[in-house]
Specification:
single chain; alpha+beta; Alpha-D-Glucose-1,6-Bisphosphate, Chain A, domain 4; 7-stranded antiparallel β-sheet
């Protein structure tokens, strides 16, 4: 059962896509993220690894994901490849009003491994349902407040 959240943003799709898919910017709008980067350091392609450092409880833990698809400036997805809780994230950016506005949709699904099998339904999904609307509103605020073009992927 996936969690899906959408919001309209007053920025062109290319800028929205570049920002929302840049792991180096995740900490600016995602609760619990303290850092992120692409392992290869270059433009993203299918199979590349993304390392996101998340605060989980009182510890910071790296989480590795693999890019599953990328179609700039419309679609991007990753899936977790390590740890007891692995997220699958799909981002869609739709064009609104002649390429001047965008609709961002983020879909999350979680798979548990080991202890994660218990944690996903009891802790992870309920927390994600609460955090996603806050995260996506923060994403909109950051994009609309920042007049600089977003970094390209």
């Amino acid at each position: 059962m996936s969690i899906s959240t959408s919001i309209d943003v007053d920025r062109p799709p290319s800028e929205v896509f570049a920002y929302v898919t840049d792991p180096g910017r995740f900490a600016e709008w995602q609760n619990g993220v303290v850092g992120g980067r692409m392992a290869n350091g270059g433009p993203q392609s299918v199979g590349d690894r993304c390392v996101t450092t998340r605060r989980i409880g009182f510890a910071e833990r790296p989480v590795t994901s693999e890019v599953t698809h990328i179609e700039p400036p419309r679609k991007w997805g990753v899936r977790g490849i390590d740890g007891p809780i692995r997220a699958e994230v799909n981002v869609t950016v739709e064009t609104l009003e002649s390429d001047q506005r965008s609709r961002v949709t983020i879909e999350l699904e979680f798979a548990g491994h080991g202890i994660g099998i218990l944690l996903v339904p009891l802790v992870v999904r309920p927390r994600a349902r609460k955090e996603m609307p806050v995260n996506i509103r923060r994403l909109k605020q950051r994009l609309e407040a920042d007049s600089r073009p977003a970094a390209s992927t």
